[in-house]
């Protein structure tokens, strides 16, 4: 895990294909001092209390909001997208407000009766001193702040390392942090590659990792060796099930977005669709007609729907999945090409039929705007197909409410949207929805949603106090 990090990050612009940005990488040799500084500052952060921390975090959100245009420019250059970047840019303030509101209840320390001999139990919550947050390139800002914010509200210091693929937005984040020294002392953002990420895992007291299952396994293994908690949010191959009686117009519209938002470069993207055989042909025709209307966001990033392939090696995976599917008998109904505009690559949203589970496109995470549709003959078969995956992040079910609810409870997926696709990502990191965990290889550890998910960031104590003056009945008689 202790490899040398490269000293310079060179970032390719996904809209032009040009390497047009360089910045120094944070040297792994500097981590000792950085983390020692965080450890020294963290007790003062705890003492500030939730209200004090809220004031500082809100000042940061104000400083970030004042730089919204710069942030959007940086995220656009990092990811090639504007629509999704706007969603990211506006999330921080909402998360701070939500967590500040629910944290006092989730971390309440009122004494309660234990039911045993008048003994009271009081919860103690001791924040992990230094939390490491390591993020991916697909939503580079949101997927870092979504864990960093509740950790900071809980009283932890945080070191955040976003993906080296998307480093530009950090300049803007850092400028906002520089305006709020009280936060800059306990929240550090460092840029570097996987070796720096590994070095962070070697030093922090707990880890929140978002990224691929392959890297997540390495991180979880190292965290286990160090006996530190590790929360991993990993890849997905989300299924959508269309039931008899579903509103097909609604289902096709929802799926045309749910499978292509972020150009499909979303862990929560719908990547496979199962439809009753009797509805299959009509469903495919409607879906393909809608998907064919989706346009690349080129040349104007404010127009169109589909952004470029952000990370160049992803294009190879998309080609391999398409070629493999076609070789094995799949038929492309619409899309199927990776286009070049400027110097960037745009994958056409692609509807496929005649697919089966021998194909990579039905089994491995594609991370692209693919909508393979497979017919099924019975509900049991559909559920078995949906669950035939080593992933289990989220899913969608379309159909009459009662039937859809029943199917949802049979799916191996942490978040299930009913009569919509992609509700779960709207709420990741939110305290306002029920808790959910990833199933299978899509992640490990406690929920990132729900009011109590902030408890991931604290060590829990049970402080038990006995008010009796005489001997306790369980003592030896001496
Ligand atoms: P990745 O695993 O390649 O990299 C993620 C981060 O890990 C990067 O910051 C990278 O520098 C760092 N890293 C690499 N090696 C490391 C190591 N040995 N130790 C510690 N850190 C290391 O993932 P990616 O390609 O950036 O992101 C795409 C993946 O992320 C997809 O699989 C996607 O499904 C997943 N993802 C999951 C969620 C979720 O909430 N479940 C959200 C977004 C993305």
UniProtKB/TrEMBL annotation:
<dbReference type="InterPro" id="IPR016161">
    <property type="entry name" value="Ald_DH/histidinol_DH"/>
</dbReference>
<protein>
    <submittedName>
        <fullName>Acyl-CoA reductase-like NAD-dependent aldehyde dehydrogenase</fullName>
    </submittedName>
</protein>
<dbReference type="InterPro" id="IPR016163">
    <property type="entry name" value="Ald_DH_C"/>
</dbReference>
<dbReference type="GO" id="GO:0016620">
    <property type="term" value="F:oxidoreductase activity, acting on the aldehyde or oxo group of donors, NAD or NADP as acceptor"/>
</dbReference>
<dbReference type="InterPro" id="IPR016162">
    <property type="entry name" value="Ald_DH_N"/>
</dbReference>
<dbReference type="Pfam" id="PF00171">
    <property type="entry name" value="Aldedh"/>
</dbReference>
<keyword id="KW-0560">Oxidoreductase</keyword>
<feature type="domain" description="Aldehyde dehydrogenase">
    <location>
        <begin position="7"/>
        <end position="457"/>
    </location>
</feature>
<comment type="similarity">
    <text>Belongs to the aldehyde dehydrogenase family.</text>
</comment>
<dbReference type="InterPro" id="IPR015590">
    <property type="entry name" value="Aldehyde_DH_dom"/>
</dbReference>
């Amino acid at each position: 895990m202790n490899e040398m990090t490269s000293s310079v990050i060179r970032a390719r612009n996904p809209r032009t294909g040009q390497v047009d940005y360089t910045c120094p990488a944070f040297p792994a040799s500097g981590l000792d001092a950085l983390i020692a500084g965080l450890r020294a500052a963290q007790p003062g952060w705890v003492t500030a209390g939730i209200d004090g921390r809220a004031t500082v975090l809100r000042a940061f959100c104000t400083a970030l909001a004042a730089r919204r245009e710069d942030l959007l420019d940086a995220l656009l250059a990092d990811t090639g997208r504007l629509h999704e970047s706007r969603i990211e840019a506006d999330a921080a303030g909402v998360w701070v407000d939500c967590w500040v509101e629910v944290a006092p209840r989730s971390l309440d320390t009122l004494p309660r009766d234990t039911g045993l001999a008048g003994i009271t139990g009081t919860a103690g919550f001791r924040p992990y001193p230094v939390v490491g947050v390591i993020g991916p390139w697909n939503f580079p800002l949101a997927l870092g702040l979504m864990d960093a914010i509740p950790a900071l509200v809980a009283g932890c210091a945080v070191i955040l390392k976003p993906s080296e693929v998307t480093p530009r937005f950090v300049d803007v984040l850092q400028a906002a942090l520089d305006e709020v020294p009280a936060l800059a002392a306990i929240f550090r953002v460092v840029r570097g590659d996987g070796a720096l990420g590994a070095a962070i895992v070697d030093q922090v007291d707990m880890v929140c990792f978002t990224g691929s299952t392959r890297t997540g396994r390495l991180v979880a293994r190292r965290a286990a060796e160090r006996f530190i908690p590790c929360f991993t949010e990993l890849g997905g191959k989300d299924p959508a099930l269309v039931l008899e009686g579903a509103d097909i117009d609604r289902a096709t519209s929802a799926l045309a977005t749910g499978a292509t938002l972020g150009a499909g470069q979303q862990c929560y993207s719908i990547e496979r669709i199962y439809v009753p055989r009797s509805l299959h042909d009509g469903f495919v025709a409607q879906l393909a007609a809608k998907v064919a209307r989706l346009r690349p966001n080129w040349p104007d990033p404010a127009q169109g729907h589909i952004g470029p392939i952000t990370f160049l090696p992803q294009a190879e995976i998309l080609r391999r999945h398409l070629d493999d599917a076609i070789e094995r008998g799949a038929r492309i109904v619409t899309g199927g090409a990776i286009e070049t505009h400027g110097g960037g690559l745009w994958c056409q949203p692609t509807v496929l039929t005649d697919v089966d589970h021998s194909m990579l496109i039905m089994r491995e995470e594609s991370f692209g705007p693919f909508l393979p549709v497979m017919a099924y003959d019975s509900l049991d078969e559909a559920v078995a197909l949906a669950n035939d995956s080593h992933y289990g992040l989220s899913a969608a079910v379309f159909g009459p409410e009662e039937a859809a609810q029943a199917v949802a409870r049979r799916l191996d997926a942490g978040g299930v949207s009913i009569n919509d696709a992609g509700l779960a990502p709207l709420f990741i990191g939110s305290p306002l929805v029920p808790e959910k965990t990833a199933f299978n290889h899509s992640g490990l550890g406690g929920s990132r949603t729900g009011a109590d998910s902030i408890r991931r960031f604290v060590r829990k104590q049970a402080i038990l106090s006995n008010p009796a003056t005489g001997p306790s009945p369980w003592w030896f008689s001496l």
